[in-house]
Each structure stands twice: as C-alpha cells, then as structure tokens.
C-alpha cells in the first residue's frame, strides 16, 4: 500500500508540473550530450595519439640553394655522410628504418599534396629539400637524432613530426575542454531546475504534505515521491542523450567519417557503450542529490 501510494504521488507530481518536467528532461539531455561528446572526443584523441605518435617520423632536411647554410647546398658527399651517421653504431640501435627522398620525389609529393592550390604554381623542384625520413623504434628518442645530426654539414634542420601533431591535438583538446565547460554549465542549470521543480511540486501539494504530517508520516516517506520525480525526469534526459550518442557514433562517425577518412581509426560502439552508463549514472545521481536537497530544505521551512 505504501509503495502504491508513493507511485501515485509521483504520478500526480509529474502531471501537475509537466512543463517543468519537460524542461528538466531537455536541459539534462543537452548537458549530458555535451558530456558524452567530450568524453568520446578525449577517447578519440588518446586513440589518435597512440596511432600517430608510433608512426611519426623524424625528417632530416638537407640544405638547398635557397637556404642560408654555411656550407651551401647539400651535395653527394654530405648526403653520404648523413647516411653513414644514420647507419653508425651510435644511431642504428634507435632507428627502425629510414629512406632518402631526393628533390624530384619530394616535388612530386608536394604537387600531389597541394593539388589545386595556387601555392603549387610558385614552387620549383630546387626549393624542395632532399630529405632523410627516419622511423624510430621509440619516438621518444627523437632528441638523440636531433642532437647528433643538427649542425652536421649539409643538414638544414632535423624536425620531429610529433611537434606538428601536438598542435593538432592541442586544438582538439581545446574543443574537448570547451564541450566540457558547456556541459558543466548545463549540468548546473539542470541541477537548479530540478531543485526548483521539486520545490514547486511540493508547494502545489502543501495541503497533502500537511495532512501526511498530521497522520504521522515520516519525512523519508514524504520526500521519496519528490526525489523519484526528479530522478525520472533526469533518467529520461539521460536515455535521450545516450541514444543520440549511440546514433551519432554508429551512423555519423562509423558510417560517414570512417568511410571518407580511412587514415584515422575512429571511436566505435565499444567506446559508446562505455560512455552511456556514465551518462545515466551522472544524470540519476545529480537529480537525486538536487531533489533530496531541495525537498529537505522545503520541509524544514
């Protein structure tokens, strides 16, 4: 009987404050969608770092005629000297493999990369440096290569490609943190809205609450329907956010992006199924906590 009475009170509260309940659902839905997106974006960044950092190369750019190198443009002797250094006992243990790219090959690659861009019309083969592309066994040892080859005759610069990746990941991290910031603000709004909804619901049923107090109902018995109302509204918003996250990953990320950008290993449904329970728990816990706090304060008044 007590169980049935509690659920009867829950139903009455949801009907009386339907517009506020819908508002709670929408705010929870939007905020948790941002939370899920931010979590998936962080997982994607971590996945990309693992993939690309292991494949990042160190480029040893040789001097061209347009560079201000002390010894002038690289020649066969300086190229052979660098090749010998890369094969030396000092560097060989760090190197997985390396290959040499001459100016003609570099120019062809440049034209392919910037096809359709006007910059390709102004670049000539002599502007493209001859390059040693080095794959390290451990990319974290790139400093050994940089210290050894920088300043060698004919070497213009030694560049670790991870420095370019760091810039890209910084932008992605900024986008992720922005999503987290928006999600935090929306969650605060959801908590305040749930608390307001519960207090309005309690005010609209102040007569029933007064009668329950007169007949000796405990505070826990009075509070429970209001807490359940907040949890139900937040749970619906959490489920909607979870559905959007799952659909987005399945049809947009896996069905669209992964088909068009095959060089990137995108997150999949395995990661989505990890995020969904987190969203539901966050929604339910915040709703229960804010509803409990609001009704306790109201009953003390």
Shape: rod-shaped
* Overall residue-averaged pLDDT value: 82
Strand order of the main beta sheet, please?
Answer: 2-3-1-4
Report, as a whole number of angstroms, the end-to-end distance.
Answer: 29 Å
Unreliable stretches, pLDDT < 50, 5 or more residues? none
Radius of gyration: 31 Å
Total strands: the figure is: 4
How many helix segments?
A: 9
Structure notes:
- The chain is of the alpha+beta class and 301 residues long.
- It is 69% helix and 8% strand.
- The chain has 9 helices and 4 strands.
- It has a 4-stranded antiparallel beta sheet with strand order 2-3-1-4.
- α2 runs antiparallel to α6 (162-204) and α8 (219-260) packs antiparallel against α9 (269-300).
- The radius of gyration is 31 Å and the shape is rod-shaped.
Descriptive tags:
301 residues; alpha+beta; four-stranded antiparallel beta sheet; 9 helices; 4 strands; rod-shaped
